[in-house]
Structure formats: C-alpha cells, structure tokens
Amino acid sequence: MLFLEQPPRFLFFTGKGGVGKTSIACATAITLAHCGKRVLLVSTDPASNVGQVFGITIGNQITSITAVERLFALEIDPQAAAEVYRERIVGPVRGKLPESIVKSIEEQLSGACTTEIAAFDEFTSLLTYSTLNSGYDHIIFDTAPTGHTIRLLQLPGAWSNFIEEGKGDASCLGPLSGLVKQRAQYKEAVEALADPLRTRLVLVSRAQEATLREVARTCKELAAIGISQQYLVINGILPGSEAEQDVLGKAIVNREQAALAAMPDILKSLPCDYVALKPFNLVGLDALHLLFAKNIPQLMPEVDQPISIDAPNLSALVDEIAANSHGLIMFMGKGGVGKTTLAAAVALELANRGLPTHLTTTDPAAHLTDTLTGAVKNLAVSRIDPDGETERYREQVLKTKGTQLDSEGLALLKEDLRSPCTEEIAVFQAFSRVIREADKQFVVVDTAPTGHTLLLLDATGAYHREVSRQAGDNGLLELTPMMQLQDPKQTRVLLVTLAETTPVLEALNLQEDLRRAGIEPWAWIINNSVAAAEPHSPLLKQRAYNELSEIDAVAHHHATRYAVVPLLMEEPVGRECLSELIHA
Predict the structure, then answer these.
(1) Which pTM value belongs to this model?
(2) 232 is a domain residue
(3) Which of 144, 233, 234, 232 is nearest to 190 (CA)?
C-alpha cells in the first residue's frame, strides 16, 4: 500500500458514507501495530463503529485492543459531543429568553456542522496535547474534518458576537459560539493538518463515476487550504475473475474500469492504491487482516444456494402514488445512492400511465434531461444548476446582510455561505417555483433539502414565514412550502439507500432529521441491490447474502413501506433502462 510507505504520525481517512473508511482505517492500525508501532485509532464518524469492527466495546475512552499488541482505540461519539456542546450554549439562556428564540437557537445547532465542530473540539487535544499523544507513534483518525469546518476554525473574529448581534442569517456559524478551548489550540491543530511531515490524508472512494467526482471536489477543497499530502484508495473493486462466471459480474467489472479510466485528472496525480472487493463483511480481526491481502482464503462457508428475495419493486410504490392523480414526490438520501436516476424512473412511469408530471432535477451531467426532454408525452423536465443558484443566493445575502458588516464580519459571513446548508437553501428556493404545481399534476423532485435545512429556513424567516404572517392577518389559510411538505396528503418523501450498514444508518439519521421538521417519510427505496439481481459468481453471491440482514431491518423496523431495486447490468440511462428499474 503506497499510503503506508513511510507514514507520518497522523493519518486521516475521509470519504463518503459506505466507501469503507472505517475498515481501511482499522486495517491500517493493525498493520502499523504489527510493524512494532504503538498506535491509537480514533473514530469520529457518526455512521461507523470501530468497536463493532473489532468485536469489542470501546466508547469514549482509550481502550486497549488486547488481541493486537500495541493497538489502542477511542470512539468519540459525535452525537453525544454535539448534545453536550448544544447544552453548553443553550442552557444559560433557557428560561430567560422566549421559547421561540430558544428553539431557533437549538435548530441553529442541530445541523451536521455542529456535530463536526463538536467532534473537532474533542479530538484537537489529540493533535496538540503532548501529554495525551506522546505515548503513540501513530494516531489514525477515521473521518477527517471537511474543508469547510477547517476554514471556519481558521477565520478570525468574535464568533459569539456575530451570532448574538444577528449580523447574518448564519447556518453554520452558530456552532462556533460554543467553542471554549483557546484559539491557539485550534490554530495549532489546523497547522498540524496542513503539515505533510506530520499528517497524511487518505481519500477513500469506490470505482464509481459519481463517487470519484465527489472525491475530486474534496481533494481540491482540501488542497486549497494547504492540505496537500493526499493519497487515494479505490476500495471494493470487483476482481476480473468474477466476470468469467457471471454476466452481472462482467457488467460490473466493465463499469468500474470505465469509471477508473474517466477519473478526474486531479485524482490521477495522487498516489493511488486499489483494494479488491471482499466476499465477507469486514468485522473481526480475521477479516481485517485480509483486507490488504492479495490471496484470500475462504473465511466462511460458500453460499451454494441461489440468493433471491421476496420484496416489493418500485412498481408497487408507483401504483400507490398514481392513485392520487397529483402530488409532490421528493427523493432524499445521501450522495451516490441513486436519487436522480430513481426520480427520473418514477417520473417517466407516471407519465407513461397518462399522468401529467414535472420532473425537477439537479443532475449535474444532464444525461437524464438530454434523454427525457421532449421525448415523453405528459412529462416536462427542468434542470436546476446548483452552482448557479447558490451563487445567486450568496450575492443576494452579501448585498443585503453583507453591507452592514466590517471586514471581519464579512469574512465570517462569506465562509458561512460556503456551507452545505447554503446550497440546499438556494436549490430549494429554485425548487419552490414548481412546488405549487403539485395541486394539479405530479411534481417529482430530485435531491430535496434535509429536515435541518427546512427548519433553518423556517427559523430564520429566509423563506416562508412572512407568507404565514400575512395569511394570519387576513384570516385566510395560505399554504406555505413547509405546510405542504408536512401534509402527507400533499407530499410523499422517499428515502433512498443501499443495502449496506453505513448507508442504512445514514438514512435512519435523515429520517429522524425529517421527523424533527414534522415530515414523515412515506417509503424507503433500497437501490442497487446485489441480492435482488440474483448473481451467480461466488463473491457476488456472498455479497448478496450479506445484504439480507440490512434489507430485513428496513422492511421490518425502519420503513412503513419499501421497495428493492436490483443492480442492473447496464447503467440506467435512457427510457428503456429507466422503465426496467420500475418493474425489475
């Protein structure tokens, strides 16, 4: 492994959920420990569980991994850290300020940025306190802070005053008001991250075009703030031998090789390692020992029976949706799970059934709009450019709020406007232009904002509270966007996930996020299921078997209704392939 050659003291692993960051971080820790190094493995990923991987309980204290000499681990629970962090800020004003203001503050502190900053508040001590880290040759972090969080910590200024004086409709600056450690410590931590002699950052990806594009954006963002010591690991590549035994396996191999050939240039310049897909779940020491191995012994009995599942397909969900003749259909989920494709497939099916439908998409490649625009009766397609909408929103805020700020406050506001929440708000404002069409036809929305962003819009008055106040003055009940989203008769939210542990956990977190906003998800869609594709190669059959427990958990514990969509041999582009998704 290139990223393990002459490793510096600190190694950070980052990447989207489900790409294997935790497994690779754990295998790295074991490898270094076996080389005679004292290693501390630290997890700050809310969707990972290092303790589960090692088969022991770890928690928020340094714990010796007794089965591996010289290896220690620590799990920083980011949700617990965020809760303590929020209470540190909200507690002193609870009972002293109006309840509406307290709730607004709490919502400001309920986003992903708060969780990340709270976790960073915890682990900066491991980067900077010699008394804590002096006993270890290497400290490995599972999940690195984003470039946005690092830039926030680099900025000067009185964060608390910025929030308290209401100088900006801040979405991510609120969390900063609770930082209690000395700024010198944060400065030292950020410097450690940017020092290639001390820190190496490992980008973890899968051999998928969308995932590689996302990693390329992360690479550019981190390089722009001085973190240049980056390595790339492409995880979970299906071995070419599997193509000999299975037409599905051959299609996957071809698809992955095409994605690697089209890898963004900025990634091609990085040192890169390739890790083959394993037939087993990466839990336990035996499995972790084999993650970087080339020759894999059989760890478990081979699945000799065909894998098949009895689960509803997308057609069953569309039957229920179509019964209403109109409504708002919103697809939500983490990046890379296939929201855009599924939204297009459902919109196409509704149109084919003779129902007027408007598909609104943020598809960056525009291949869906190229395929569908003007080609299908009853279907209108509009594309929203997230970059363009976000830039317009930023300019609007800077022209209003920004004119009231000094140079220090302006720097804070500009960084706040670079947060993920800003893009969600900007895109949602564009989506809102077609939402009202849902009382006459179907409106299918690809990539909806999270519950936190919707509540943030409501709390700051940035979008629709004025409409509500005006409706209250004249006694008329005017339907605001939030009211429409909260009405199950008007709106159906479909959560998209994969049949893997981390994506399912992320979808669960998203479901709770929506429920806080008074929005109950209508259905779950498990996309790209290997089990539903009924593979024949030994490795894919084992992977399919591993999916069954996740599918069962969604069916019986997480969702009121669900559908499973199989992994197709061809990329679902074009009318025929999109229709196949519905009925497969």
Answers:
(1) 0.79
(2) yes
(3) 144
* Cβ(230)–Cβ(203) below 8 Å: yes
Backbone angles phi, psi at 566, to 5 degrees: -70, 155
Report the domain count for the chain. Answer: 2
Place of tokens 């095409």: 258
Are 284 and 343 contained in the same domain?
Answer: no
Report the alpha-carbon distance of residue 15 to residue 178 in Å, rounded: 27
Which two structure tokens, joined as six digits, stand for 16? 């989207």
Rounded distance between C-alpha atoms, residue 323 and residue 35, angstroms: 63
Would residue 422 count as lying in a domain?
no
- Same-domain check for residues 137 and 28: yes
Residue ending a domain, choose from 273, 289, 305: 289
* Cβ within 8 Å of residue 481, ≥6 positions away: 428, 432, 435, 463, 464
Q: Known catalytic residues?
A: 18, 20-23, 45, 502
Q: Say yes or no: 69 and 176 in one domain.
A: yes
Residues 340, 263 share a domain? no
Burial of 211 per CB tally in 10 Å (0-12, 13-18, 19+): buried
Shared-domain flag, residues 327 and 284: no
- The domain of 77 spans 2-289
- Residue 321 and residue 219 share a domain: no
How would you class 87 by CB atoms within 10 Å of its CB: exposed for 0-12, middle for 13-18, buried for 19 or more?
A: middle
State the virtual CA torsion across 381, 215, 209, 524 in degrees, nearest 10. Answer: -60
End residue of a domain, out of 233, 255, 289 = 289
CA–CA separation, 21 and 341 (whole Å):
26
Domain-located, residue 300: no
Whether residue 445 sits in one domain with residue 329: yes
Q: Answer whether residue 476 is part of any domain.
A: yes
Give pLDDT tens digits along the chain (584 positions): 999 999 999 999 988 777 888 889 999 999 999 999 999 998 876 555 677 778 788 877 888 998 899 999 988 877 777 788 778 778 888 888 888 777 777 777 777 667 777 777 777 777 777 666 778 999 998 876 666 667 666 654 444 444 444 444 445 555 565 555 556 777 788 888 889 999 999 999 999 888 898 899 889 988 888 888 899 999 999 998 888 878 999 999 999 999 999 999 999 999 999 999 988 777 778 888 888 887 766 555 566 677 888 999 999 999 999 999 899 999 988 877 888 889 999 999 999 999 999 998 876 555 565 566 556 889 988 888 888 888 888 888 888 877 878 787 787 778 778 776 677 778 877 877 788 888 899 999 987 667 666 765 555 444 444 444 444 444 444 456 677 788 898 899 999 999 988 889 889 988 988 898 888 999 999 999 999 999 988 889 989 998 999 999 999 999 999 999 999 988 887 788 888 899 88
If asked whether residues 533 and 436 sit together in one domain, one would say yes
The CATH number that applies at residue 356 is 3.40.50.300
The Cα angle at residue 116 between residues 110 and 119, in degrees rounded to 5:
110
